[in-house]
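ok posting inputs for the guanosine-5'-diphosphate job
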Amino acid sequence: MSINWFPGHMAVAVKKIQDAMADHDVVIEILDARCPMASANPLIESLRLHRQRPCLKVLNKTDAADAAVTPQWLALFNAQKNVHAIALSAKKPGDAQKIIAAAKKLAPHRNDNFKPLRMLVMGVPNVGKSTLINALLKQRKAKVGDEPAITKALARYDLSPTVSLTDSPGLMWPKIDHPEDGLMLAASHIIGTKAYIESEVAEFLAATLLARYPKALAARYGTPAEVKTLDGVGVIEAVAAKRGFKIKGGDFDFDKAALALLGDYRSGALGRVSLETPTSRTARPLAGVKNKDTIENPGDDA
Ligand code: GDP
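and the output
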């Protein structure tokens, strides 16, 4: 399954961001720590490279990601030219402040009232951008006045006389190349539910969790930890059995169980989970991926 997703307003946003890039010093790219590369928008990368802007990659929701995997991603990103990466949790008091110190290091020449550090915050939808920005703004919610390059879609805030922050709309890209990336984004609620079939996403999630976290599945749903023949469908049936989800006639209610699995992953009930690692990306495709349907963008409810 590959997912195409590009509402018209996103094309407009891209143009506005392209213009705004000229007036900003550092791109703050917010990623989902559970799937940092899948949630890295190639459009953001090309926009910032076009203007040669340094990038601070922020792996947010690190509280929900596998603590053994996140450092591997940080090492990979930190080896990239003009890039620095940090992991944090927007919901943890004080964590958001780490962004400012890290961004200052990427643009040390922007350090006074005349040359304030101008940060442009970007990322795909639902990755925690608003939570982070609100944490950074605290009480300072007043927008800075309009400027030529700052459109209504891009709100700029002064954090101090020497640091400003510009918010941008959650941005997707026209076509997701790898089906697994679309599935990871769907599982992590980064693309809206109208863009995919939930049971297929849940099947992918189940197969991924089975390959990477069989003990977590066994603990929550009673799946056998050692059985090699179990697959994504089997995991979802185990969820249905554990929760007593049945339809008329006594068969498992697969759709309800699929939703329950997605809900458990999204709420963190399965524990800290990373859907991809640098190694899993090089060893694609992940187990259990169906690769036949294409779902066109149906609208925007992410
Ligand atoms: P935005 O669309 O990128 O602005 O994302 P939001 O800030 O609205 O956050 C999307 C969802 O992610 C919300 O349910 C937040 O509560 C949740 N969220 C944001 N930051 C974190 C975090 O650090 N950890 C976890 N577990 N959830 C977070």
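notes: The chain has two domains: 8-175, 197-281. The longest strand covers residues 26-32.
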